[in-house]
Amino acid sequence: MKKAVPLLLLCLLSMTASGAGREKKAPAPAAPPLPAAKTAAQEPAAAPAADTALSFDAAFMDKYGKPATDSLVAMVKNDYSVCVGDPERVGRTQLFRWKSYIDSMVADKGYPKKFKSFVTATGMKAPDVRPCEPIVFHDHIERQLAEMDNIVAAQRAAKEKAHSDSVTIATELKKHKHSHADILNLPPGISKAALRLMLEREKIRYKSVQKYIQADDVMLDSVMVTIAFYFDENDKYNGYEFETETVRAETLDKTARKWADRFAAFYEKKFGKPANAVNRVGFKEIKQGSLSITSKWDSPSVIVGLAVYESRYYAKVMVNY
Question: What's the pTM?
Fold first, then answer.
């Protein structure tokens, strides 16, 4: 079933085409069809290849000479400027390729219907219409319809994906219980695919790194952190760790140590009890390659501490379900 032209689109195109018609008080004659012996009549819906287009030019030159060929080129350029745009932006090969396409479409049995609908839509008088105008007019409409079909299809696909994702998330959340150590509403045991979907739903950027998923620039309890989510051999979520930005040694007490204290308070509130172990870590006790523990909970295991890497200090949390 043939698609109807959208009313708004038709009105806009009608205004454009009719405007163009009003400007042409004395339209120049349209370019005649290119030599029939060389046309691509077998494939009227597509423009011919470049070498075929060149053969039109050569054939016309051989038969009628350079003055007549130059006159033909001028008329084709005039048609192109009316129906498409600036002909100086395209080469002669492309120009003749376009002209041969217009000729083939004019010869098509559907052209009279296109011509009639173009005249009706634009209000132009039939003698003022160039052969290329109805073709370009309907080509534009068909492109617009195809674009709208693509948009509708994309919207439908997005809606179907969103529904599928919601079902996946709901199923995973129903199967797995939350623990006191959860962050971002992610319970242990959910699949890697479900965790990704939940991050996407919260618009959290992430990337897969070897056997874990890394999320950067996540605001957690008013502190910006980088989080790594870990999975077992069956791709089930079984732990995470996160780190703050690094700071210089002279600002350790005012930044990283305060962040560690903040995280300890965060988990104390989640567990509903103080840490099982609390340590005051001295500056010299913070060694590269290990986490200096400041607070610790059990069941699940939550460790808060301080770390250093290349003389840059940061707070870190490790959770193992």
Answer: 0.59
